[in-house]
Amino acid sequence: MPIAAVSSRMLAVTEEMRAVMDFAQRVLEGDGLGPDACDFMFGNPQEPPLRGLVDALVRHAEPQDVHWFGYQKYDALARETVARKLSETRGRSYEPADIAITAGGFGAIAAALLAVLEVGDEVIYPRPGWFAYGAQIRGAAGTPVAVDLSPVNFDLDIEKIAASITPRTRVVVVNTPHNTTGRIFPRAQLDALADMLAAASERHGKVIYLLADEPYARLVFGANAHISPAESYPHTLIAYSYGKTLLAPGERLGWLALGADMPEADRMRLREAVDIAQVSHGWAFAGRTLQRALPDLEKLCIDVTALERRRDRMVEGLRAAGYDLPVPEGTFYLIPRSPIPDDMAFAARLAADGVWVLPGSVAQLPGRLRISLTANDVMVERSLPVFAHAIRQVAA
């Protein structure tokens, strides 16, 4: 009997996600992640949702006419709200027509890639980085090309990126503030990247797009400020997710914006391409209730001051126990170095005592651990003695 065939592209996507899928499956099928576990793994919320979020969803779910849940690509007020907010905060004029409301950050990135990639086109993305970049690139029929950040301070390595550009390069991904290191790339680096991409585009006779992945743009600490690559490079597409600022990743609301400095003719072509990308990807527009609620949700954000305080407490406690880790400038991750080379084994040691972290090998950070600060303060305090005990055990 013939063997049922599956898509070779989906097989490739599966392999891109293999490490994180296998880890998640082991955790979910095990019995260790009980109600008292300290969950620092995937960034799921560990505190009640924002009251304003709940109220907005309830209010906008109440139908006012028979068409309330009918087909609609975009809610006009949602697009206007995003365009106005971008214009106010970024010093450039964004047009509602250049805003696509998407099913979260996943949907924004997918729409961008599907809109510009030919089969086999190369997409350069940072390593370490979000573990789904490779999968999303292959899902859009592209070829992922990982380029390492500087190992010293996790800066962009412009020379390595330049060396990785070929005639097939179509997109370069920049994620700032950066998941997983918390680095905010300075303007000088973004300007240098822009100059290099402009020259490479001219050399190869086609535009190389910059995809600015910015879901943590509002989660910055102290005197730091988010700097968008779109301010340096005209042919930038900006992807954003409300899942981080609202700490509601399962609601799947985000947007994709075309750079305000992009030539009008190019924006006109991209508007239609992004729209059709969402149609062809399985009607990937955000749901109508979420789109109607967006103007209310745009005003909301988790308590960044409390998040910064939690960051400081964890950094202080981990360093006091002997862990080596940088202080992130934004996001909600910490990346302490594992005290033994096998980060998977050390993560398992922590899990045995009820503290669950993401092994660095799963997040393209071998030899480190990734800790998500979406855990609550009680979890933080309960976990610190476990971290201290584990490092003493391996040092003994």
Outline the structure in words.
- One of its GO terms (molecular function) is pyridoxal phosphate binding.
- It is a single chain.
- By secondary structure, the protein is of the alpha/beta class.
- The chain folds into two domains: 8-47 and 303-395, Aspartate Aminotransferase, domain 1; 51-297, Aspartate Aminotransferase, domain 2.
- The chain is built from 14 helices and twelve strands.
- It has helices spanning 8-16, 18-29, 51-61, 76-90, 104-116, 133-139, 158-164, 187-204, 242-245, 264-280, 288-297, 304-321, 343-352, 377-395, and strands at 38-39, 99-102, 122-127, 143-148, 169-175, 209-213, 236-241, 254-258, 333-334, 355-356, 358-359, 369-372.
- The strands form three sheets. It has a seven-stranded mixed sheet, with helices on both faces. The protein has a three-stranded antiparallel sheet with strand order 9-12-11. Strands 1-10 form a two-stranded parallel ribbon.
- α3 (51-61) crosses α11 (288-297), α4 (76-90) runs parallel beside α11 and α12 (304-321) runs parallel beside α14.
- The longest helix has 19 residues, at 377-395.
- The radius of gyration is 21 Å and the shape is globular.
